[in-house]
Design brief:
By secondary structure, the protein is of the alpha+beta class. The protein has helices spanning 26-37, 64-76, 114-122, 128-136, 146-156; strands at residues 41-43, 54-56, 78-88, 98-105, 110-112. A 3-stranded antiparallel β-sheet has the order 3-4-5. A two-stranded antiparallel sheet has the order 1-2.
Amino acid sequence: MPELPKHRDRLVDGGEDQRPRFSPSHAQLQHVEIHVSDMKQIPAPFKPNEPSRTVPAELNRLSVEVSERLAEYLETAEDLVLAPGTRQSPLSDNPDHRVRVGVMTDGEWVWDLAWADLVRESRISPGGDFMDHVEGLDYLLPEISEDRIMEICEVLDIPY
């Protein structure tokens, strides 16, 4: 029977190999960085008077249950602007992939109505801060005063 002492450094009790199964090369890591940086970025929900930001359009980030609850929150909020038509989805090069047009608010955050469609169809996350806000409200929209709606419209230069 052959000696196996040279393999002892890779084995622990039970005989399991402890070496890493995959160790990416520097070139592979560069490819990953390029891939992530090439991911589509879409305008995220924002707070009035704060700089706009984008989030990566990473598919299937939310569970089906969370995406349904969030989509309902997003589409039933107070509308600041609604249009009867649709526009091409920011996620697709296909002109037939459409999303609704509007600007919505819950009194603290503002977002494009298209987010409801993107969340429901592709389960994209609108960002951690916004998700924390909505989860903190247990997906229940707060009451918004007319004065607050007028303030937001003024900041965003939306006729009211």
